[in-house]
Each structure stands twice: as C-alpha cells, then as structure tokens.
Amino acid sequence: MTSFSEQPQGGFKKGSLNRSSTSPRTLFNNVMNGVIFVCGLLALLPLLLVLSYLLIKGFGSLRPSLFTELPPAAGREFGTGGFGNAIIGTLIMVGIGALISVPIGVAAAVYLTEFSKGKTARWIRFATNVLSGVPSIIAGVVAYGLLVATDIVGYSAIAGGVSLSILMLPIIVRTTDEALQLVSQDLRQAAVGVGATNYQTVLQIVLPAALPSIITGVTLSIARAAGETAPLIFTTLFSIFWLRSLTEPTASLAVLVYNFATSFDQNQQSIAWAASLVLVLLVLIASIIARFTTRSKS
C-alpha cells in the first residue's frame, strides 16, 4: 500500500500528514496550550490559597467543644468557648430565606417559561438580572428599613432570613427559568395530546424533568446566603446566647468571624479562624452537592 510520503505512479508526490515539530503552526499551538494551562492554574490559585491558609490557621483551632459551646467573652482562657449558637442561627436564617425564596422563585420561573410571553417576560427577566447584581449590603438596608426600623420584628432571625431571601431569589429564578426552557417541547406536546391541562403538564411533566437543575440552583443560592455578612449586621446583630426565639438578635457564623477576627483577644481570633474554615467547608459541601446533582442529571 502506498503511503502519503511515497512517490506514486504518475510522478505526483502527496504530502505527509506528519507535521514537523519545528513548523510555525506547531510552535504556535504548543505556546498557546502552555498559556491556557498557566491561565487555568492562575484561576485555581486564589481558591488554593484561601483553602490552604484557612487550613493552616483554622484546622489547629478545631475541637469538638467549638460546636457545643457559646462564644467566649474577651479575656477568657485560651481554648475555651465555641460557636454552637452561630451554627444554629446560620442554619435557621438560611432556612427562613429558602422557605421564602424557593416557592416564589420557582413559581415566577414557571410563569415566565410556561404562561408569560412577550414584553412581560422580558421585563421580569431584566428585573431579575438587575436584582442579582444588587450588592448584599443593599439587601440588608432594605430589610432593615422594612422590618427593623419600623419595629415590625426588630433585630431578629426573621429579619435576617428576609434579607437573605432577597439575595437568594434571583439565583433561583434564573436557574429554574433556564432549566424549564431546556425541557423538550415534545414532552409538553405529548402531555397535551393525551388530554392534560397546562397546569397538569407543568406539575407532572415539566417540573419533574427539570427538578435536578432546580435543586442545583437552590443549593447554589443557599451556598451564597450562608456566607453573607452585611445583611445580617443590619438585621440580626449578634448574640452570645442560645437562640430562644425567632424575634430576637441571632448569632451567625459570618458575623461571628467579622466580630472575632478584629478582636485583640487571641482566643477569639482562634475561634474566628475555626469558624471561617467551617463556613467555607459548608459552602464547598453545598457546591459539591449542586455539582453531583448536575452530574446525576446528565
């Protein structure tokens, strides 16, 4: 069999498929591959630096009593105290935010995808994009003005949950909207063909098909809300006691880190590092769950 580099009959010589390692195109390709690889490493570098620094500073301060004890006052013996109430407060406020934002966000996305057309849908999507870019401190100021300054609930877990729901809502709307749009039209047409109404099609066909992506969006919104500090400073303040009511000041991990990291007490500083590590791990776990859900869908 004649190879590409051999001289065939008729005197016509075909070119070789083997590209020279010194050709300009090969050199340019190798250089660009190297540049892309370096850029990928630089993109991962901030995450690696944050995780490594938190592990160095926070892992040595971790101990079981941190999860069961209350925050210590300044001047206490080193190695005492914890942030058990802050973990509970964070979970409760994020849960309140999810209870508010998930039903509203999913319902709004269903309306946009299934029942709204034209300018109305475009304006709602535009408003959602604007809301997603609003700084978190603005959400805190709005919740403060509506709930705290008017003394409706005061500084409380409820006010903190409302402020977090403002940040979670646009993420849920956008991800759910995109997930519903990816559901095949054939499924909708098949459901209508067997006599299903629009609401039956949405509830029994469309939403179950898009459920993994919806869960991913909810998980990502929870991960963002769990690490927010500014809204909680305006709406919940802080507490060194166990939570007894949703209408009283509530501790959170983010605000505890803010308060203790700026303290001159070494014991509080060590607790702040440990709380930072726990908070980052919670966010990472939420992100891993979202990633796992996406892979399960695919």
From TrEMBL:
Cellular compartment(s): Cell membrane
Gene Ontology terms for molecular function: phosphate transmembrane transporter activity
The keyword Protein biosynthesis appears for this protein: no
Disordered: region residues: 1-20
Keyword field: Cell membrane, Membrane, Phosphate transport, Transmembrane, Transmembrane helix, Transport
All copies of domain ABC transmembrane type-1, residue ranges: 87-290
GO biological process, one term: phosphate ion transmembrane transport
InterPro entries to which the protein is assigned, alphabetical: MetI-like, MetI-like_sf, Phosphate_PstA, Phosphate_transprt_permease
TM ranges: 35-56, 86-112, 124-146, 152-173, 270-292
Membrane topology label: Multi-pass membrane protein
Stored Pfam families: BPD_transp_1 (PF00528)
GO cellular component assignments: plasma membrane
PROSITE patterns linked to this entry: ABC_TM1 (PS50928)
Keyword Transmembrane helix: yes
Family, as annotated: Belongs to the binding-protein-dependent transport system permease family. CysTW subfamily.
NCBIfam families: 3a0107s02c (TIGR00974)
Official protein name in the record: Phosphate transport system permease protein PstA
Upper taxonomic lineage: Bacteria, Bacillati, Cyanobacteriota, Cyanophyceae, Nostocales
